[in-house]
Specification:
Blueprint (H helix, E strand, L loop, with lengths): L11 H18 L13 E6 L5 H12 L3 E6 L11 H9 L5 E6 L4 H5 L6 E7 L5 H15 L6 E5 L6 H12 L3 E5 L14 E4 L10 E4 L15 H8 L11 E3 L12 H4 L6 H21 L3
Parallel strand pairs: 1-2, 1-3, 3-4, 5-6, 5-8, 6-7, 8-9
Helix pairs in contact: 1-5, 1-9, 2-9, 5-6, 5-9
The structure holds aspartic acid.
Length: 299
């Protein structure tokens, strides 16, 4: 594999290989000196055109724990502010001969667009509402660690599916690992044709009790050009996941950042069925394994 643009770049064996390696990197992250020399002397560029806390910090830490030299560029404060095009920015940064460019952008397809402009391996860290493959990998890793396997698991993805790149990558990854996926939310936030990715779709939470895992999505207000729901209050009333809607034994996930009190109640976030903290923790080990797979394993 030369690039990671979509979860479809990986088959089940490829996902399992990356997650097995992530297990050994999780062990490195538990040591006092959290470093291995795998990428010593190599350069990783993190190019973020959209805001990020977890993804950018974990890609940075992952590259540093593999001993790479890391350059972090945020659109604000860079020459992008001065009107430099994406192509010129990528070609300029490629002059440093990076082994990998990690890119996040508000536009679907950006990671794929960049590939011909650089010799570096390109990793999609989220492109508009298209895909976020490393989020899917860390979510599968988190569930596999907790439950052993995703085979036969019933996973419900609830909320703003229309604007969610996480939903697209996770439907593919969860399904590919043997889980049965259902997406639920207001009809205006369920994109037409989502079933083609392999998920059932429903506007009702009536059968939510059937889920083993409830994966809640953030309301992506920054991507909404018009009103998709009457009011946020009504959304919370009908779709918020809280302890009244969860049954005992269900696990709760969310990619973050959470709108506390909107798609998820505060008590649910902080409850002991929440895997949100484990998801964040998994991000570093899984991204180390992605770098390792792309930069050290022959394609
Ligand atoms: N952090 C995730 C993403 O970048 C989820 C979200 O923003 O809601 O897609």
């Amino acid at each position: 594999m030369s690039h990671l643009l979509s979860i479809e770049d990986l088959d089940r064996a490829g996902i399992e290989r990356i997650l097995d390696r992530a297990e050994s990197f999780a062990e490195v992250s538990g040591r006092e000196i959290k470093k291995v020399p795998a990428l010593r002397g190599r350069t990783v560029v993190n190019l973020f055109y959209e805001s990020s806390t977890r993804t950018s910090s974990s890609f940075e830490l992952a590259a540093k724990r593999l001993s790479a030299d890391v350059v972090n560029i945020r659109a604000a404060g860079s020459a992008v502010d001065k009107g430099e095009s994406l192509r010129d920015t990528v070609q300029t940064l490629s002059a440093y001969d990076p082994a990998a460019i990690v890119i996040r952008s508000p536009h679907a397809g950006t990671a794929a667009l960049v590939v011909p402009w650089t010799d570096a391996a390109v990793i999609n860290a989220g492109d508009g509402k298209h895909e976020h493959p490393t989020q899917a990998l860390l979510d599968v890793f988190t569930l596999r660690r907790r439950l052993g396997s995703l085979e036969g698991l019933n996973i419900w993805i609830v909320g703003d599916v229309t604007h969610s790149r996480v939903a697209r990558s996770n439907i593919l990854a969860f399904g590919g690992m043997g889980a049965k996926v259902t997406v639920a939310g207001p009809p205006t936030l369920l994109p037409r044709g989502i079933e083609q990715l392999g998920a059932a779709a429903t506007p009702s939470l009536e059968r939510l009790h059937e889920a083993d895992v409830v994966y809640v999505l953030r309301m992506q207000q920054e991507r909404m050009e018009s009103a998709y729901i009457p009011t946020l209050r009504e959304y919370a009333q009908r779709y918020q996941i809280n302890s009244a809607r969860l049954r005992p034994g269900q696990l709760l996930m969310h990619p973050g950042p959470v709108n506390r009190g909107l798609e998820l109640s505060g008590e649910a976030i902080d409850s002991d069925v929440s895997l949100i903290g484990s998801q964040v923790q998994a991000g570093v080990a899984v991204r180390m394994a992605v770098f390792y797979e792309l930069l050290t394993v022959p394609a």
